[in-house]
């Protein structure tokens, strides 16, 4: 661990304990990033700044739930994404935007979040291992359906034909798989359900 990482880790631990000086450090470091991120999607600087301030207030109030240094950025970007989507949905109703525009915005937000949060090789390796183990632990039929759907990009009808089951059975297996994975990988939902379950 380099000096900067060690310094920030110590600040993170102090932040978790309620140190306002440590909180101010992360506020100064990330406020402009969260604001700029939000502006790309809501096109209103004042609103984006208000949203960023709200995100940091929420972070401070929930600091005990943040488990790692990278968790700070995960928390902030996830909160900002939620608020941006709420505003986009509001505008969708108000301005009668088409639903496919909203879906595209959400996809862009997900990609932006992933590109904005830095993860080291060890974390990614651990994440991949947990995903693979959790998928391997699925019931055989459920695992087969999940792999065909998420990794082979097959449609439900194709899967049903290949496995000689009904469409409802395929849907039921997918629902079961996502429910099991959501439970097992709850600590990593921010990443995992963007990476493999948000298609």
Explain this structure to me?
InterPro entries: RNA_pol_sigma-70-like, RNA_pol_sigma-70_dom, RNA_pol_sigma70_bacteroid, RNA_pol_sigma70_r2, RNA_pol_sigma70_r4_t2, RNA_pol_sigma_r2, RNA_pol_sigma_r3/r4-like, WH-like_DNA-bd_sf. One of its GO terms (molecular function) is sigma factor activity. Belongs to the sigma-70 factor family. ECF subfamily. This protein has 199 residues and is mainly α. It folds into two domains: 3-115, Orthogonal Bundle (Rna Polymerase Sigma Factor, Chain: A); 121-197, Winged helix-like DNA-binding domain superfamily/Winged helix DNA-binding domain (Arc Repressor Mutant, subunit A), CATH 1.10.10.10. It is built from ten helices and no strands. It has helices spanning 3-16, 20-42, 45-61, 70-95, 99-116, 121-136, 140-150, 156-163, 167-184, 189-195. Helix 2 (20-42) packs antiparallel against helix 3 (45-61) and helix 2 runs parallel beside helix 4 (70-95).
Q: From the alpha carbons, calculate the radius of gyration and give it in angstroms.
A: 20 Å
Please indicate the percent range of residues in DSSP E strands (runs of 2 or more): under 5%
User: What is the helix/strand order?
Assistant: HHHHHHHHHH
CATH fold call of the largest domain: Rna Polymerase Sigma Factor, Chain: A
Intertermini distance:
36 Å
Helix content: over 70%
What do we call the CATH homologous superfamily of the largest domain? RNA polymerase sigma factor, region 2, helix turn helix motif
């Amino acid at each position: 661990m380099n000096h900067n990482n060690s310094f920030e880790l110590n600040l993170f631990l102090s932040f978790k304990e309620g140190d306002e000086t440590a909180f101010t450090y992360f506020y100064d470091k990330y406020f402009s990033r969260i604001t700029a991120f939000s502006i790309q999607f809501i096109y209103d600087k004042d609103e984006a700044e208000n949203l960023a301030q709200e995100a940091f207030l929420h972070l401070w109030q929930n600091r005990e739930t943040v488990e790692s240094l990278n968790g700070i950025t995960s928390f902030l970007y996830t909160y900002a994404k939620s608020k941006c989507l709420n505003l986009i949905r509001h505008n969708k109703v108000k301005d009668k935007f088409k639903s496919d525009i909203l879906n595209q915005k959400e996809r862009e937000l997900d990609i932006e979040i992933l590109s904005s949060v830095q993860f080291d090789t060890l974390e990614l390796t651990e994440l991949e291992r947990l995903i693979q183990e959790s998928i391997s632990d699925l019931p055989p039929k459920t695992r087969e359906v999940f792999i065909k759907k998420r990794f082979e990009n097959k449609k439900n009808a194709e899967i049903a034909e290949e496995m000689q089951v009904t469409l409802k059975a395929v849907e039921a297996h997918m629902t079961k798989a996502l429910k099991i994975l959501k439970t097992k990988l709850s600590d990593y939902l921010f990443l995992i359900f963007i990476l493999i379950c948000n298609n």
